[in-house]
Design brief:
It is a single chain. By secondary structure, the protein is α+β, with helices and mostly antiparallel strands. The protein has a single domain, classed as Peptide deformylase (Peptide Deformylase). The strands form two sheets. It has a five-stranded antiparallel beta sheet with strand order 1-2-3-6-7, with helices on both faces. The protein has a two-stranded antiparallel sheet with strand order 4-5. A hairpin with a 7-residue loop joins strand 4 and strand 5. The radius of gyration is 16 Å and the shape is globular. The structure holds ligand GNR and nickel (II) ion (NI). Ligand GNR binds next to strand 1, strand 4 and helix 2.
């Protein structure tokens, strides 16, 4: 297993639509293990493959609280089948936009179809923080970031700051 570097805004890979996985094999399973290790190391509650520079439709999450045992979930080619009518607003953050947060409103419950790490089709309903996290991660697969839901003023401010930091780090 390996902790991989996390790609930051404004890297253009974060704005690309990721490609579906055609075959779930050991390489994909290894990638999911590395993504989980990277996510736990960060630490974060979710990670999408584009965030480690790989434009494939793979996401991992763990929204269990610190007290209980880890509950890692990995999804390949996830699709939201239905969204509930109730919404939920929480302050989101993103490992690719460190130091910035903002309120985002999303459906509170969703039904998702995906392939698990054995390549088996799963259909499951989710609510609570996990439902929010899955939507945030699926957005990443579509080139969408949480700042896209904020006001233009706030989004532009965050983008400008991240771009400036990127230029400074590059020297
Ligand atoms: O670690 C994360 N926390 C978080 C908090 C609220 C809503 C979504 C998230 S996901 C984020 C990790 C991340 O950037 N995943 O793409
Ligand atoms: Ni994110």
């Amino acid at each position: 297993m390996a902790v991989l570097p996390i790609v930051l805004l404004p890297d253009p890979i974060l704005r690309k639509r990721a490609e579906p996985v055609e075959r779930v094999d050991d390489t994909i399973r290894q990638l999911m293990d590395d993504m989980l290790e990277t996510m736990y190391d960060a630490p974060g509650i979710g990670l999408a493959a584009p965030q480690i520079g790989i434009s494939k439709r793979i996401i991992v999450m763990d929204c269990s609280d610190d007290e209980v045992e880890a509950e890692p979930i990995g999804m390949i080619n996830p699709e939201i089948l239905t969204s509930g009518d109730d919404t939920c607003t929480i302050e989101e953050g993103c490992l690719s936009i460190p130091g910035h947060r903002g309120d985002v409103t999303r459906p509170a419950s969703i039904e998702v179809r995906y392939l698990d790490r054995d390549g088996a089709v799963q259909e499951r309903a989710f609510d609570g923080l996990l439902a929010i996290c899955i939507q945030h991660e699926i957005d990443h697969l579509n080139g969408v970031l949480f700042i896209d839901y904020l006001s233009r003023l706030k989004r532009d401010m965050i983008t400008r700051k991240m771009t400036k930091e990127f230029r400074m780090d590059r020297g």
